[in-house]
Amino acid sequence: MKLERSYAQRLRGIARHIGDIVKGFAWETLEEIAASSEPAQRLLRRYADTLDPWANAVAQRMVAEVAASDRVSWRKLSSDMGRQLHREIDTAPTGEAMRASMQRQVGLIKSLPLDAAERVHKLTQEGITQGRRAAEIADEIMASGDVARSRAMLIARTEVSRTATELTKARAEHIGSTHFIWRTAGDSDVRSTHKVLNGKTFRWDQPPECDPGHHALPGGIWNCRCYPEVVVPDLD
Prior knowledge:
Blueprint (H helix, E strand, L loop, with lengths): L1 H22 L6 H21 L1 H30 L1 H8 L4 H35 L4 H9 L1 H31 L4 E5 L8 H4 L5 E3 L5 E3 L2 E2 L11 E4 L6
Antiparallel strand pairs: 1-2, 1-5, 3-4
Helix pairs in contact: 1-3, 1-5, 1-7, 2-5, 3-4, 3-5, 3-7, 5-6, 5-7
Protein backbone atom coordinates (compact mmCIF):
# COMPACT_ATOMS: atom_id res chain seq x y z
CA MET A 1 0.00 0.00 0.00
CA LYS A 2 1.49 3.32 -1.11
CA LEU A 3 0.41 5.28 1.97
CA GLU A 4 1.85 2.65 4.29
CA ARG A 5 5.18 2.60 2.43
CA SER A 6 5.40 6.38 2.54
CA TYR A 7 4.72 6.53 6.28
CA ALA A 8 7.12 3.65 6.97
CA GLN A 9 9.87 5.41 5.05
CA ARG A 10 9.56 8.48 7.27
CA LEU A 11 9.56 6.42 10.46
CA ARG A 12 12.58 4.39 9.34
CA GLY A 13 14.52 7.66 9.29
CA ILE A 14 14.01 7.89 13.06
CA ALA A 15 15.17 4.30 13.50
CA ARG A 16 18.35 5.05 11.54
CA HIS A 17 19.07 8.04 13.74
CA ILE A 18 18.51 5.92 16.85
CA GLY A 19 21.06 3.45 15.51
CA ASP A 20 23.52 6.29 14.84
CA ILE A 21 23.10 7.65 18.37
CA VAL A 22 23.75 4.28 19.99
CA LYS A 23 26.70 3.50 17.73
CA GLY A 24 28.26 6.82 18.66
CA PHE A 25 29.18 5.43 22.08
CA ALA A 26 31.74 2.83 23.15
CA TRP A 27 30.30 -0.50 24.27
CA GLU A 28 33.24 -2.91 24.05
CA THR A 29 33.95 -3.50 27.75
CA LEU A 30 31.76 -3.63 30.85
CA GLU A 31 33.36 -0.37 31.99
CA GLU A 32 32.49 1.32 28.70
CA ILE A 33 28.96 -0.07 28.80
CA ALA A 34 28.45 1.29 32.32
CA ALA A 35 29.90 4.67 31.32
CA SER A 36 28.00 4.97 28.02
CA SER A 37 24.56 3.83 29.13
CA GLU A 38 23.34 7.01 30.87
CA PRO A 39 24.66 9.48 28.26
CA ALA A 40 23.14 7.40 25.46
CA GLN A 41 19.79 7.32 27.24
CA ARG A 42 19.87 11.09 27.79
CA LEU A 43 20.66 11.71 24.14
CA LEU A 44 17.84 9.43 23.00
CA ARG A 45 15.36 11.17 25.31
CA ARG A 46 16.55 14.57 24.10
CA TYR A 47 16.05 13.38 20.54
CA ALA A 48 12.46 12.42 21.40
CA ASP A 49 11.87 15.95 22.75
CA THR A 50 13.17 17.55 19.55
CA LEU A 51 10.86 15.42 17.40
CA ASP A 52 7.69 17.34 18.26
CA PRO A 53 7.50 19.68 15.22
CA TRP A 54 8.61 16.98 12.80
CA ALA A 55 6.32 14.36 14.34
CA ASN A 56 3.34 16.71 14.09
CA ALA A 57 4.10 17.45 10.44
CA VAL A 58 4.54 13.77 9.55
CA ALA A 59 1.40 12.78 11.45
CA GLN A 60 -0.64 15.51 9.78
CA ARG A 61 0.57 14.47 6.34
CA MET A 62 -0.19 10.79 6.90
CA VAL A 63 -3.69 11.45 8.23
CA ALA A 64 -4.42 13.92 5.42
CA GLU A 65 -3.32 11.38 2.80
CA VAL A 66 -5.45 8.64 4.35
CA ALA A 67 -8.41 11.04 4.59
CA ALA A 68 -8.06 11.98 0.92
CA SER A 69 -8.00 8.32 -0.09
CA ASP A 70 -11.01 7.59 2.12
CA ARG A 71 -12.91 10.52 0.62
CA VAL A 72 -12.29 9.26 -2.92
CA SER A 73 -13.56 5.79 -1.98
CA TRP A 74 -16.71 7.24 -0.46
CA ARG A 75 -17.39 9.44 -3.46
CA LYS A 76 -17.23 6.41 -5.71
CA LEU A 77 -19.81 4.77 -3.48
CA SER A 78 -22.00 7.86 -3.37
CA SER A 79 -22.00 8.21 -7.15
CA ASP A 80 -23.86 4.91 -7.25
CA MET A 81 -26.19 5.77 -4.38
CA GLY A 82 -27.41 9.25 -5.30
CA ARG A 83 -26.93 12.93 -4.57
CA GLN A 84 -28.19 12.85 -1.01
CA LEU A 85 -25.53 10.38 0.08
CA HIS A 86 -22.87 12.37 -1.76
CA ARG A 87 -23.92 15.51 0.12
CA GLU A 88 -23.93 13.71 3.48
CA ILE A 89 -20.46 12.28 2.90
CA ASP A 90 -18.98 15.65 1.98
CA THR A 91 -20.25 17.17 5.24
CA ALA A 92 -19.25 14.26 7.51
CA PRO A 93 -17.55 15.41 10.75
CA THR A 94 -14.23 13.56 10.40
CA GLY A 95 -12.22 16.24 12.22
CA GLU A 96 -12.38 14.54 15.61
CA ALA A 97 -11.18 11.22 14.20
CA MET A 98 -8.37 12.97 12.32
CA ARG A 99 -7.24 14.90 15.40
CA ALA A 100 -7.27 11.75 17.54
CA SER A 101 -5.19 9.89 14.97
CA MET A 102 -2.67 12.74 14.64
CA GLN A 103 -2.24 12.90 18.41
CA ARG A 104 -1.73 9.13 18.54
CA GLN A 105 0.87 9.27 15.75
CA VAL A 106 2.91 11.92 17.53
CA GLY A 107 2.98 9.76 20.66
CA LEU A 108 4.01 6.68 18.71
CA ILE A 109 6.72 8.53 16.77
CA LYS A 110 8.25 9.94 19.95
CA SER A 111 8.02 6.53 21.61
CA LEU A 112 10.63 5.11 19.21
CA PRO A 113 13.65 6.85 20.80
CA LEU A 114 12.07 6.70 24.27
CA ASP A 115 11.66 2.94 24.00
CA ALA A 116 15.23 2.68 22.71
CA ALA A 117 16.47 4.59 25.76
CA GLU A 118 14.56 2.26 28.07
CA ARG A 119 15.96 -0.72 26.20
CA VAL A 120 19.55 0.50 26.64
CA HIS A 121 18.89 0.99 30.36
CA LYS A 122 17.36 -2.46 30.78
CA LEU A 123 20.06 -4.27 28.80
CA THR A 124 22.80 -2.51 30.75
CA GLN A 125 21.30 -3.17 34.17
CA GLU A 126 20.29 -6.77 33.54
CA GLY A 127 23.48 -7.60 31.66
CA ILE A 128 25.79 -6.36 34.39
CA THR A 129 23.79 -7.79 37.32
CA GLN A 130 23.49 -11.16 35.60
CA GLY A 131 27.20 -11.29 34.84
CA ARG A 132 26.81 -11.51 31.07
CA ARG A 133 29.77 -11.01 28.76
CA ALA A 134 30.34 -7.49 27.51
CA ALA A 135 30.21 -8.64 23.89
CA GLU A 136 26.71 -10.08 24.38
CA ILE A 137 25.40 -6.92 26.00
CA ALA A 138 27.05 -4.74 23.36
CA ASP A 139 25.56 -6.73 20.48
CA GLU A 140 22.06 -6.30 21.86
CA ILE A 141 22.51 -2.60 22.57
CA MET A 142 24.01 -2.01 19.12
CA ALA A 143 20.92 -3.66 17.59
CA SER A 144 18.71 -0.87 18.98
CA GLY A 145 18.38 0.73 15.55
CA ASP A 146 17.18 -2.54 14.01
CA VAL A 147 14.68 -3.05 16.83
CA ALA A 148 13.38 0.49 16.32
CA ARG A 149 13.15 -0.14 12.58
CA SER A 150 10.99 -3.24 13.11
CA ARG A 151 8.71 -1.31 15.43
CA ALA A 152 8.53 1.57 12.96
CA MET A 153 7.34 -0.84 10.27
CA LEU A 154 4.71 -2.27 12.63
CA ILE A 155 3.47 1.23 13.49
CA ALA A 156 3.18 2.16 9.82
CA ARG A 157 1.32 -1.04 8.89
CA THR A 158 -1.07 -0.73 11.81
CA GLU A 159 -1.73 3.00 11.92
CA VAL A 160 -2.50 3.60 8.25
CA SER A 161 -5.16 0.87 8.36
CA ARG A 162 -6.44 1.97 11.75
CA THR A 163 -6.78 5.60 10.65
CA ALA A 164 -8.58 4.57 7.46
CA THR A 165 -11.05 2.50 9.50
CA GLU A 166 -11.66 5.34 11.96
CA LEU A 167 -12.42 7.79 9.15
CA THR A 168 -14.68 5.27 7.43
CA LYS A 169 -16.53 4.77 10.71
CA ALA A 170 -16.97 8.54 11.17
CA ARG A 171 -18.44 8.96 7.68
CA ALA A 172 -20.56 5.83 7.99
CA GLU A 173 -22.13 6.83 11.28
CA HIS A 174 -22.78 10.33 9.92
CA ILE A 175 -25.03 8.90 7.20
CA GLY A 176 -26.80 6.68 9.73
CA SER A 177 -24.91 3.42 9.21
CA THR A 178 -24.94 1.25 12.33
CA HIS A 179 -23.29 -1.90 10.95
CA PHE A 180 -20.40 -3.05 8.81
CA ILE A 181 -19.30 -6.31 7.21
CA TRP A 182 -15.86 -7.62 8.16
CA ARG A 183 -13.68 -8.18 5.10
CA THR A 184 -10.20 -9.72 5.05
CA ALA A 185 -7.37 -9.33 2.55
CA GLY A 186 -8.27 -12.82 1.35
CA ASP A 187 -4.79 -14.34 1.31
CA SER A 188 -2.81 -16.91 3.28
CA ASP A 189 -1.41 -14.28 5.67
CA VAL A 190 -4.82 -13.56 7.20
CA ARG A 191 -4.94 -14.61 10.86
CA SER A 192 -7.23 -17.53 11.59
CA THR A 193 -9.12 -15.47 14.18
CA HIS A 194 -9.80 -12.84 11.51
CA LYS A 195 -10.63 -15.36 8.81
CA VAL A 196 -13.63 -16.63 10.77
CA LEU A 197 -14.99 -13.05 10.93
CA ASN A 198 -14.90 -12.56 7.17
CA GLY A 199 -18.35 -11.80 5.75
CA LYS A 200 -19.98 -11.41 9.16
CA THR A 201 -21.90 -8.28 10.12
CA PHE A 202 -21.21 -6.30 13.31
CA ARG A 203 -22.23 -3.02 14.89
CA TRP A 204 -19.74 -0.15 14.69
CA ASP A 205 -20.06 0.38 18.44
CA GLN A 206 -19.67 -3.33 19.25
CA PRO A 207 -16.50 -4.57 17.51
CA PRO A 208 -15.91 -8.32 17.75
CA GLU A 209 -13.11 -10.15 19.54
CA CYS A 210 -10.63 -10.42 16.67
CA ASP A 211 -7.66 -11.61 18.74
CA PRO A 212 -7.82 -13.35 22.14
CA GLY A 213 -8.83 -10.70 24.65
CA HIS A 214 -8.91 -7.90 22.08
CA HIS A 215 -12.00 -6.34 20.52
CA ALA A 216 -11.35 -4.11 17.52
CA LEU A 217 -12.71 -2.94 14.21
CA PRO A 218 -11.14 -4.41 11.05
CA GLY A 219 -7.79 -2.75 10.48
CA GLY A 220 -7.85 -1.46 14.05
CA ILE A 221 -5.35 -3.85 15.62
CA TRP A 222 -1.64 -4.46 14.97
CA ASN A 223 -0.70 -5.88 11.59
CA CYS A 224 -4.35 -6.17 10.52
CA ARG A 225 -5.08 -5.64 6.82
CA CYS A 226 -8.81 -6.28 7.13
CA TYR A 227 -11.28 -3.52 6.33
CA PRO A 228 -14.95 -2.70 7.01
CA GLU A 229 -17.53 -2.81 4.26
CA VAL A 230 -20.13 -0.22 5.21
CA VAL A 231 -23.75 -1.31 5.44
CA VAL A 232 -25.39 1.75 3.89
CA PRO A 233 -28.81 2.63 5.32
CA ASP A 234 -31.81 3.35 3.16
CA LEU A 235 -31.82 7.14 2.79
CA ASP A 236 -35.10 7.38 0.90
